[in-house]
Specification:
2 domains, 3 helices, 9 strands, Xylosyltransferase C-terminal domain-containing protein, transmembrane, protein xylosyltransferase activity
Length: 213
Amino acid sequence: SPLCGTRLNANLHLSNWDRKRGCQCQQRRMVDWCGCSPLVFRMEDYSKIRSEVHRNEQSQSTMPPRFFARKFNPTVDSNVLAAVDEINGVGLVVTLAPETSSAGNVGSTVELFFSSRRPSEFDGRILARGKDAGLEYFRVYTSYDVKEQISWNWSGLLSPTSSLLFLVSRWRPRAESAGNETRRLVATVWDSYGKGIAYSKLESAPRKSEDEQ
């Protein structure tokens, strides 16, 4: 048949699966149609798209590579959308600003919200025994998507009705660990108007580079 050369053996779709993050189908060989949602494509996942394009280019199809990929979200990462357009030969610079040679805001997205004078980010350092690791990053989130590892509460505002608060922290590795990070015990106290109302402890697992939880 003349149409034999137009077949693409890719089921016409490319999904960004990660069984380790927020997927209840880890034990199944096939994760399609079992209630597991793929992740949003980011620039670190761009190699998957390039591999699919290259695989279709190496096929005997006379058609240009065509497939459906999901998911994309410009509020999470718009750079990967610009990279996909470059593959198709349609750059965002030409599409959005044909009269200019460059568009500096192509890789950006705008979110409008009220910015409080008291940000929720805590810029502090914790030192213990003079040789412990410092606290590099600490934030309190609501509407935190564990699977995507991002908060949809862009403003970071908290209210008395906020529930399911998430703490996200990053710690600088100890210099003497030489890449073999030991376990770290983190204690958190929720303080309401100067009164401790909750207390929790979290013990991290050893990691080779940085300790993030």
